[in-house]
Design a protein that fits this description.
This protein has about 210 residues and is an alpha+beta fold. Helix content is about 35%, strand content about 25%. The chain has five helices and four strands, in the order H-E-H-E-E-H-E-H-H.
Length: about 210
């Protein structure tokens, strides 16, 4: 009986000694504060730079620089076929700019509804006409009125030959008074007519070339 009691006492003493050593080690090591348990006011990333966060374009492969297209480059003129016309210009002109602009918009919307492809829609330079009046007694003339002609062009491509008569008939029936309508094939001269001539600049460039 005494032998069993002595063994039990030794084991209890050993367990107590191990626990005391463990407590001593825990007190000696400093506590590590987890960032989740840290206070809100403390910034754990204060020394970490944040520049470049969210940038992704440097990860993409570099593309070759795009060549700048000439804004005034002439497009290819489509040739007519057995079932369709080539490139056509629907020209609207008149003295009232509001009527001309609204009618050209009507033509553009009508083409979209009928499925007619519109290649371009642009305005031509305004032309000014001076009306001169001769005096009853004398030979001197003076300006009586100044007329400004406004023009708009709706350029069509590959207009179907069967739909063309219906299209022209609708345009003529809805043509407002004082507005002229013409349909003709697109040429290179029509392209150059879009831009105003600058004879002074052209003369200077000719002198520089010589």
């Amino acid at each position: 009986m005494n032998t069993v009691f002595r063994k039990l006492q030794v084991s209890v003493t050993q367990h107590a000694f191990v626990l005391n050593q463990a407590l001593t080690l825990c007190r000696a090591t400093p506590s590590v504060q987890h960032p989740v348990w840290a206070s809100v006011n403390e910034r754990q990333y204060k020394s970490m730079p944040t520049h470049g966060i969210g940038r992704w374009r440097h990860l993409l492969p570099r593309e070759a620089p795009k060549k700048k297209k000439d804004r005034h480059q002439m497009k290819e003129i489509l040739a007519e076929t057995d079932t369709a016309y080539g490139t056509l210009n629907v020209k609207v002109s008149g003295y009232d700019m509001t009527l001309v602009e609204h009618y050209s918009q009507y033509i553009h919307n009508l083409c979209n509804r009928l499925g007619i492809k519109v290649a371009e829609s642009y305005a031509l330079p305004t032309k000014t006409t001076e009306v001169m009046l001769l005096q009853e007694q004398g030979t001197k003339m003076f300006v009586d009125a100044v007329l400004k002609t406004h023009s708009r062009v709706v350029q069509l491509s590959s207009l179907n030959a069967t739909a063309c008569p219906v299209f022209i008939d609708v345009l003529l029936k809805n043509q407002p008074e004082g507005v002229q309508l013409s349909v003709q094939e697109h040429t290179e001269a029509d392209f150059h007519a879009r831009f105003k001539g600058r004879p002074e600049l052209e003369g200077l460039m000719a002198q520089m070339g010589n």
